[in-house]
Every structure is written in structure tokens, then in C-alpha cells.
Amino acid sequence: MRLREIASDQTPSIHASATAQEALNAMRLQGANALVVCGEKTVAGVVTEAQLIALSKGERDGRQASDVATEVVPLPGDATIKDAANAMRRLGVDCIPVIDDGRVVGPKKRVLTSTAEAPAVPRNPRQKTAGPGRFG
């Protein structure tokens, strides 16, 4: 399955200049677990709820979302779910943005995550699934 098949242009995002507190507020309003942090025509990275909660309120007010975000290379819409799982495992990240036709896209309300939208990838042809949230 291709990522564009599960993608929506309603992927939660925030501008890189927003504060970390604004990012957390936006995440909660949108019911999202992560936001794509966008600069001018670029993806600055991804920030997760866990990253923001780990900061004190004062730290969230004093830092930009781009300072907290994890830098990741977005995947193209024609990448497969297995490609995404492998990239997340290789990069040691829990989510990764998807770019299709020059737009940031992803599953509704969530950035593609290893434990949410991506189905388990079989370890070998005889094994039906690798289990919830586990890949290869």
C-alpha cells in the first residue's frame, strides 16, 4: 500500500516560528499526537506531544517549535508503508511526514506513526504479522 492511499491534506502542522506551548495547544485542539513543523516551503521536522510535555511550561513559552522538533526527511507519497516503517526504525523516530505533490500530507489527525496507522509488516512470508506496532 502506498502512503498517498492513506494520506489526507489535513495533516496537523504548525509554523516553525510558533512557540512550543502554541504547538502543544494546537496539538490538543486538533486531537493530534504530533505536528509537522513547517518553515517557508520546507519541513523543519516533527514535534511530538511527548517532546512538548517533557518541557516545563516556562521552557515551552520560551522556545520555538522548530527548536524542539526532530529533523526528519519526509517520504514521498509513492513510498510504501513498509518503506515508512523501515525509515522510522532506521532514524529512530516514531513519526515521519509524507510529501505528495509538494504538499505535506498524512493520515487524518496524525502524522504517520509506527504504532498508529502503519499496519504490522511481516517478518517473513510465513508470519502473518509482526504484532501491533512492531516492524520487521
Helices and strands in order, then pairings?
Blueprint: E1 13-15, H1 20-30, E2 34-38, E3 43-48, H2 49-53, H3 57-62, H4 65-68, E4 75-76, H5 81-91, E5 95-96, E6 98-100, E7 103-105, E8 112-113
Parallel strand pairs: 1-2, 4-6
Antiparallel strand pairs: 2-3, 5-8, 6-7
Give a nutshell description of this structure.
By secondary structure, the protein is of the alpha/beta class. Helix content is 27%, strand content 19%.
Q: List the strand order in the largest sheet.
A: 1-2-3
Q: Nearest-angstrom radius of gyration?
A: 15 Å
The termini sit apart by 16 Å
* Secondary-structure class: alpha/beta
Secondary-structure element sequence?
EHEEHHHEHEEEE
CATH architectural name: Roll
Helical content stands at: 25-40%
Examine the coordinates and then state which fold CATH places here, giving the name of the CATH topology. CBS-domain
Uncertain stretches of 5 or more adjacent residues: 114-136
Give the CATH class.
Alpha Beta
Question: How many domains make up the coordinates?
Answer: 1
Question: What is the tally of helical segments?
Answer: 5
Mean pLDDT comes to 75
* CATH H level, superfamily name: CBS-domain
